[in-house]
């Protein structure tokens, strides 16, 4: 059944209380309580109860088809077409503002049939009800005129809806197409548009034609505004749009990149291919260049954006595999040992047959070398702890230079036989001496507190070499000729063998987890039979890295162990617990001593260079 206007029906307070303002459906058998009648609600053709006294229906009636049309049961209602139909025409809806106005409600009463040959009754006027979205809409159109005399006229048709009200609708693409006698469908809503009310025409009576008023047009409001920036027909945010980043049409490039992002109007690509970085931003609206920087070779972005390889004259620098390789000094005279304290790098020049040895320093950031001691015989073994300490193998002395006063060298001990392998811990200075014809065994010596006279710490050694001390104060040293690694526990004077049967152990280093040393091998560098060894705190010995070519010097930090391959011409590292090795630098000329700090690795080579390599 088509919807029928019943805007004139009123609902009593009792009905509102009991039946929710006339919205409660009738019982399944269309029954309502006493004083109420079941009727059709026009909005959705649902049957609800209305107060009987407001409907002009007899008490015996059971169903209200339309105002004044009362029947015994719903199926007795007049069929569609005999009366007028509602002419409600809604304008298109909108998103941002009020909807367009709807058409007025049309007249709905059909003309009555005359008893004899008289004309049909005139069509009823359009209902005066307003659609809620357009309260100012005019009333419905007038009903049709009385049908002429003669045969029974079929009553006049309904008037069509009056003009729709104008509402400040939001933006809509286009108002929907009106259904005849029904409701206009609204389109998707973006830009402003016009919804047109439909026109309903009353039926033709045999005595004449009854027409209602013409439905009007509801006008949509003005189009909504773009909260960002219009790039062509697209509204976008230049701060985040990877295709319009910073300006319309400026796309973030995928060169050497994975996922693209636009942040604050800049292409902020961080998912770069390994070895590449997005380190610069094009100026203005210039096209983006993606991950444009080769982090393996860029001196200004070595390993990471903004990591600058400093190269102060006369130093030179290169970016190698993402690490800054800097020549801190060149032209040195057979440098052998090296140490670092975070501010400066120190090394020994052993000299030659016609030139004296020396001890020098240079800032870790580069600059010009300064001489701490000159005229030395053959300095070897170097340590730093407030002062710089070294042993002179040729002169048989142990010396130091106070860094605070930067004065002349002070001799701590003399008459030592080829002292080497110097180490310092808690102001105690240790070194090894070689055997002589008068003393066939080598000795590890100590100068307690760094003053007084040195005393033997461990005697009866075959050929003690280099010394290391762990944070707990345990003292270790290598004995290359005996193939042993030795230990004196902290607070003890008992010498124990930590490892034996080693292949010419040479350099040594220690940390909280154990002690590390190089087996330099017996192949003279022609056979890669050297190895990097470790004994843990329980004394268990393992081979961390085999098949090395004359590993010469060793250093350790919290995560890695580092060494120089003298005849292999490489600088290497491996995890302290074992694992894959990494070549830090190759093509070096017989690298010797090595040292590390929190930022870099340092070494010296036979070609007279002092090198620095930043750590990743």
Properties at a glance:
1% helix; single chain; elongated; Neuraminidase; five-stranded antiparallel sheet; 616 residues; mainly beta
Provide an overview of this structure.
The chain is mainly β. Among the domains are: 13-76, no CATH class; 226-293, no CATH class; 316-614, TolB, C-terminal domain (Neuraminidase, 6 Propeller). The protein is elongated, with a radius of gyration of 51 Å. The chain starts with 12 loop residues before the first helix and ends with a strand. 48% of the residues are buried.
Low-confidence stretches: 1-21, 81-223
Number of helices: 1
CATH superfamily of the domain at 316-614: TolB, C-terminal domain
Structural class: mainly beta
Tell how many strands the DSSP assignment holds. Answer: 43
Radius of gyration: 51 Å
**Could you give the order of strands across the largest sheet?**
15-16-43-42-41
The CATH architecture name of the domain at 316-614 reads 6 Propeller
**Amino-to-carboxy terminus distance:** 82 Å
- As for the CATH topology of the domain at 316-614, it is Neuraminidase
């Amino acid at each position: 059944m088509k919807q029928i206007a019943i805007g004139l029906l009123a609902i009593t307070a009792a009905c509102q209380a009991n039946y929710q303002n006339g919205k409660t459906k009738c019982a399944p058998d269309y029954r309502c309580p006493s004083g109420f009648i079941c009727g059709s609600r026009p909005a959705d053709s649902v049957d609800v109860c209305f107060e009987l006294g407001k409907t002009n229906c007899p008490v015996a009636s059971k169903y209200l088809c339309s105002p004044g049309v009362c029947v015994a049961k719903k199926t007795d209602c007049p069929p569609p077409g005999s009366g007028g139909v509602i002419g409600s025409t809604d304008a298109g809806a909108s998103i941002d503002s009020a909807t367009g106005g709807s058409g007025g409600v049309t007249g709905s009463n059909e003309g009555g049939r005359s008893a004899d040959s008289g004309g049909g009754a005139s069509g009823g006027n359009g209902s005066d009800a307003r659609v809620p979205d357009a309260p100012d809409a005019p009333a419905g159109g007038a009903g049709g005129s009385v049908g002429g005399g003669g045969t029974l006229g079929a009553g006049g048709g309904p008037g069509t809806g009056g003009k729709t009200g104008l509402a400040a609708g939001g933006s809509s693409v286009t108002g929907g197409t009106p259904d005849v006698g029904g409701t206009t469908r609204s389109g998707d809503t973006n830009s402003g548009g016009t919804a047109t009310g439909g026109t309903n025409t009353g039926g033709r009576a045999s005595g004449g034609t009854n027409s209602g008023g013409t439905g009007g047009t509801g006008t949509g409001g003005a189009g909504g505004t773009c909260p960002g920036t219009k790039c062509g027909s697209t509204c976008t945010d230049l701060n985040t749009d990877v295709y319009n980043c910073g300006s319309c049409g400026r796309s973030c490039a995928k060169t050497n990149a994975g996922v693209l992002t636009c942040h604050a109007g800049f292409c902020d690509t961080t998912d770069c291919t390994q070895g590449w970085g997005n380190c610069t931003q094009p100026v203005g609206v210039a096209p983006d260049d993606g991950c444009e920087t080769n982090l393996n070779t860029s001196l200004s972005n070595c390993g990471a954006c903004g990591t600058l390889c400093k190269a102060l004259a006369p130093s030179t620098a290169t970016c190698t595999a993402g690490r800054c390789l800097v020549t801190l000094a060149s032209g040195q005279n057979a440098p052998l040992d090296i140490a670092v304290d975070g501010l400066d790098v120190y090394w020994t020049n052993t000299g030659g047959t016609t030139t004296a040895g020396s001890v020098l320093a240079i800032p870790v950031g580069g600059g010009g070398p300064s001489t701490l001691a000159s005229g030395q015989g053959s300095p070897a073994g170097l340590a730093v702890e407030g002062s710089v300490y070294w042993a002179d193998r040729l002169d048989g002395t142990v010396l130091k230079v106070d860094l605070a006063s930067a004065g002349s060298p002070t001799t701590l001990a003399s008459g030592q036989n080829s002292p080497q392998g110097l180490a310092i811990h808690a102001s105690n200075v240790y070194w090894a001496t070689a055997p002589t014809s008068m003393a066939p065994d080598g000795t590890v010596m100590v100068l307690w507190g760094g003053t007084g006279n040195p005393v033997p710490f461990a005697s009866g050694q075959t050929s003690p070499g280099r010394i290391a001390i762990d944070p707990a104060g345990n003292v270790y040293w290598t004995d290359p000729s005996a193939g042993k690694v030795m230990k004196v526990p902290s607070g003890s004077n008992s010498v124990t063998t930590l490892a034996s049967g080693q292949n010419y152990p040479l350099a040594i280093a220690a940390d909280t987890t154990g002690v590390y040393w190089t087996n330099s091998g017996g192949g003279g560098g022609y056979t890669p039979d050297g190895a990097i060894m470790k004994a843990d705190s329980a004394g268990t010995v393992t081979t961390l890295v085999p098949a090395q070519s004359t590993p010469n010097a060793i250093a350790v930090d919290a995560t890695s162990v580092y060494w120089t391959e003298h005849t292999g011409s490489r600088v290497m590292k491996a995890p302290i617990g074992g694992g894959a090795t990494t070549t830090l630098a190759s093509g070096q000329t017989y690298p010797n001593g090595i040292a590390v700090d929190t930022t870099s690795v340092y070494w010296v080579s036979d070609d007279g260079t002092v090198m620095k390599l930043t750590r990743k």
